[in-house]
C-alpha cells in the first residue's frame, strides 16, 4: 500500500521570476491573481475536465452560497491504489468584508453557484496524469467551490441585503456529503487549499482530522494561505482592517479555534500566524516569501499608496527601487520569523521559496514540470509530499 509521508522541513531563498505583472484590482472584491486558476497551462494541452456537483442536501441544512443557491464541488473518482485515498481541495478567491462587496460578490461565481462553471480543468495537484501528478493522480480528488467570502467559516445572514453567510455550514455539508460517498473509508486523507482556501485548510485542519477514525492517516496542506498581520507601506494594517470586517460581518468568531479566541480577539484568530502552533494535525505550509497577492493587496495596495509611489513596483518587482526591495525583504523576514516555532515540530513541513507568486499547487508549471521551483533539487510536488512503497 502506498503511504503518505512528510519530507524534512526545507527553507531556501531562490529568486524566481514567475510572476512579473498583474492588472490592478479592488483588493476587497475579487482578486485577479486568484482568478487564473481556470487558465490551462501550456504544459497541459488536454486537461481532465470535471463536472460540477451541487449538494442537494445542503439547502435543508441552511448551507447555501451568498445568494441562497446550493454550494457544490467537482469530484474525480479514485482508482487502483488510490481508490481509498482522498484529496479535498478548497477553492480560494479573496473575501468580502462589507455589504457592498458581498452584494457584488453574490452576482459572481464566488458567491453563487448560478455563475459557477459547469466543468473545470483539473491540473497541478488535481491532475489525473501520472507524469504530471505522480502522488495523487489516482486518488479521489475533490475541489470544493468557494461561495461564501469568509474562508468557509461564517454563519449568519443579512436579511435586508438578502445575503447568506454560511461558509461553516457549506464546509460541513460538503464533507458530510463526501463521507456518504465513500470518504469515511479513507485510508489516507489530505485537506488542501489555495489562498483563501489555504487559510481555510488551516482553520479546518483539526476539524477535518476529527472526522476520521484514528486508523486513517490525515494531513493538511496550505498553499498561499499564510497571510500575515503585517504593516503596509503607509504604516497601517490593510489586511487586519479587511479581516476585521469579514469576521464581524459574517459571524466568523463563533467558528474560530477556541484555543486562540480565549487569548486573542477574533480578528487576530483569523490570521494563521496565531493558529499554526496549536494545530495538532500534521500541516504542510507552501508559500512564496514574496507572496504577490499580499504585496499587491496588503503591503502596497492603492489605498495605502495615494500618490502611486508603489504602483510600478507592486505590479512588477523588477521595477522596485532599492528602498522598496528592502521593505519587501522585511516582509520576507517577518514571514520566516512567523514560522520559526511551527518548524520545530517534525510532524510539520515547509516549502518557502522566494518566488513573486501566489498559489503554486494548482498550476502545472509550478506544481510539477521541468522548470518548476526547486529547493535542494526537489520540485514542489516531490518536495512537499512523497509516496513510498
Automatic annotation (TrEMBL):
Hydrolyzes acetyl esters in homogalacturonan regions of pectin. In type I primary cell wall, galacturonic acid residues of pectin can be acetylated at the O-2 and O-3 positions. Decreasing the degree of acetylation of pectin gels in vitro alters their physical properties. The keyword Signal applies. It comes from Gossypium mustelinum (Cotton). Its EC number is 3.1.1.-. InterPro entries: PAE/NOTUM. Belongs to the pectinacetylesterase family. Keywords: Cell wall, Cell wall biogenesis/degradation, Hydrolase, Secreted, Signal. The lineage of its organism: Eukaryota, Viridiplantae, Streptophyta, Embryophyta, Tracheophyta. Residues 1-21 form the signal peptide. This is Pectin acetylesterase. GO terms for molecular function: pectin acetylesterase activity. It is found in: Secreted, Cell wall. The keyword Hydrolase applies. GO terms for cellular component: plant-type cell wall. One of its GO terms (biological process) is cell wall organization.
